[in-house]
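Hey,
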Amino acid sequence: MYRDRDFVTLFKCDNRSDIFARYNVGMSFNNSAIEDFHRARRKAMMEQVLARLTGQSADLLSFEEVRRRLRANRQVDLGLQAVPLDAIVGSVGRYRDFTRTFLPKESTNQQRWAQVMYQNTDGMGLPPIDLYKIGDAYFVLDGNHRVSVARELDADTIQAYVIEVVSKVPFTADMNPDKLIIAQQYLNFVEQTTLDEVRPQADLQVTVPGKYQLLLDHIETHRYFMGLDEQRDIEWVEAVAHWFDQVYLPVVALIREKGIMRDFPERTETDFYIWLADHRADIEKALGWGVSTERAVDALAEVKRPLLTRVNDLIWEQLGIADPEELATPKRWALIEDVDRFAQDKGLRAGENIMVNIDGRHLDWTAVEQAILIAKREKGRVHALYFAVGADDETQTVVRERFETMLVDADLLGQIAVIEEDGAWQRHMLERSRWNDLVILGVGAPDSPLWGRPWRQIAIRCARPVLLVSDVVSPLNKILLAYDGRKYANQALAISAYLANIWQIPLVILYVGPADEFDRLQGAVDAYLVGHNVAAIFVNHQGDLATNLLLTAEDHKCDVIVLGTYSHTPVLEMVRGTAVNKMLRHGGPPILICQ
């Protein structure tokens, strides 16, 4: 059946031959255009099948639904402009007739589509279309077939008269229905908080629906505690601004500092803030004590590391190798420039949060006393892990009360968690170490049953520095560092310099090896220490490491020994591990292992 336009064309012809000539040419081009239509239809069917398989939507967005959800009403006429075809993602009335890429569906008018294609290929050209714009996305008011044909012809842009419909929240061309829901929820959040007015620069977008209520709860809780602190009623707008400045932004700064976003470019900073909020309470409940924001972010960085990286670390761990780089011949003196980077990455805090073990079978409070001494210097907290396997309720109560009394007497904060799972103390110590800055292990005296406790795995695998304490509490007045220029020795140097500087105590550095290498080492290390306002006494000896450490500690009256690592492999442990055992067995001072 001819369209009205075809009849008009026929009646304007001057003679019958001209009429039939025009009609035959039109039919030829129309047949080719109809073939193009069916080809586009087949691609549309494939796009819809793939969408069902992947769970992604292949539908155009409805302009009215988007406008209603975003409450976009104010209009601005932008005039005629070239619009990227990829940015046109919806339609006012024909959103069911085309796919998301404007391929024609079964309901599309075949003759109309073919006619538009014919006009394009015949050089007649197409008039500009009419579009609405919301954010960075466009919706067709008039010209759906022209958009479809232009995309089929691989055009990049199309001429359009554009009217912008202004929205308070961002809207982009890649938004699917879930993202639209999120945008609507964000709009509600912005309107309830007036965040766009009190902090115009704020961008709290998320990628998962239903999360903004948690942020509102956070603000309300923050408002409540502000009122308690300041003894007055806090206005909602004031609470919003204060929460954003004092709670949200510091957490986001830590997330940026840890570089978590690099591996997850599709996520937002607010996503990770909410992750911390969702899980921090669960973590604290599982641990039995509070967790600082810094430690929660550290754990987030660890959990969110790429899977292959974690698997690789696990393989080396199972092989008993602390760091595969150490298997190669160490390149001495080359890592001194990494000391500051290590200190910065670790955010060195010797004892802001200290974890200590309390053995339920052989109660020895030496390690707890040592932890309290360090916590007093650092103004930190002490977290005790009490292994109470077989202990009755009365014994557990006595241990709890004694620990709490020791903290009160020292004017410190802390908590104690009770573990009654038999044979799991190593696992619990390792799992909880990441939430602390320092782990203190009471290994007992050589003649104590506690001495035989297998603390080796904790010393090797712990996520934080480990202080091994035998039967004497050290006042920690002078440090002895064993230094050989390797990676872990430089980490030990950073920690030793921190302690010497913050605690204002002397530092002695021992190198066991050739004198010429000692001279080169001393110059590099001394330059680093001078830059950190720390002076050190350098000592060079030959022979057995453990013997020289004990003799040097005695000669210089050092009451804590700092090592870079306990051991790297079971083979090397025959040398290095024995040195640690030897020092502890001979009544030496506590040993801090920094790996």
